[in-house]
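ok new one. same drill as before - structure tokens go in, u give me an amino acid for every spot. 151 of them this time. try not to just spam alanines like last time pls lmao
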């Protein structure tokens, strides 16, 4: 069984077929973290994205020196995806909220996937765009609530 095979049963990756999974198996790796481990700190170089295979991950942002939880992500959800798109430093930190196993794909491996399996790479980008759009919509709603309470 390949490291990416679990994605076939994952709601967020339902558009992938077995040949897409086989392509991902060729360029992804698996990493494990203990509960409380920092997966990456805020401002670290963005060099790969992560898909949660087991466990959960907190996304954290420091504001005025205080660490705030932006999200808690679970099995089948992904984070660090902006690294594939822009390669800029991390805009938030990620910490294992429980013992966690993740599937990782580096920016270099994603670029290789784009060359070898362009249709699979396009499907991955479509998935990323849908989730990023939903996250942006939620951020807009959160800003409306914050603005309401500030007035």
């Amino acid at each position: 069984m390949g490291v990416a095979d679990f994605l076939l049963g994952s709601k967020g990756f339902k558009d992938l077929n077995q040949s897409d999974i086989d392509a991902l198996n060729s360029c992804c790796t698996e990493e494990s973290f203990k509960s409380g481990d920092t997966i990456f700190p805020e401002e670290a170089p963005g060099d790969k994205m992560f898909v949660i295979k087991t466990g959960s991950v907190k996304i954290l942002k420091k504001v005025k020196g205080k660490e705030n939880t932006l999200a808690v992500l679970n099995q089948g959800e992904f984070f660090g995806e902006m690294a594939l798109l822009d390669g800029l430093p991390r805009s938030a930190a990620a910490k294992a909220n429980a013992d966690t196993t993740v599937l990782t794909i580096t920016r270099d491996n994603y670029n290789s996937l784009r060359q070898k399996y362009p249709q699979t790479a396009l499907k991955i980008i479509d998935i990323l765009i849908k989730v990023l759009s939903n996250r942006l919509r939620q951020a807009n709603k959160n800003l409306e609530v914050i603005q309401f309470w500030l007035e």
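The mean pLDDT is 91. and btw Residues 5-150 form a domain with the Jelly Rolls fold (CATH 2.60.120.10).
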